[in-house]
Design goal:
Strand content: under 5%
Helix content: 40-55%
Number of helices: 1
Order of helices and strands: H
Oligomer: single chain
Shape: elongated
Radius of gyration: 24 Å
Largest sheet: none
Length: 51
């Protein structure tokens, strides 16, 4: 085997692990669309005042 083969293989494996774990971490904590508190009127989306 070439001298740099193990180093390249280690970097490739590390990159693969990061790319596989990243989508899982990006979804952490997301539960869905925000809802207004009970008894409150939904005022969003608001329109911006025009000048």
């Amino acid at each position: 085997m070439p001298k740099g083969y193990n180093m390249k293989r280690k970097w490739l494996f590390s990159l693969l692990v990061v790319l596989l774990v990243l989508p899982l971490m990006a979804g952490c904590g997301k539960k869905g669309s925000p809802l207004p508190p009970a008894g409150e009127k939904n005022t969003y989306p608001r329109s911006y005042p025009s000048q």
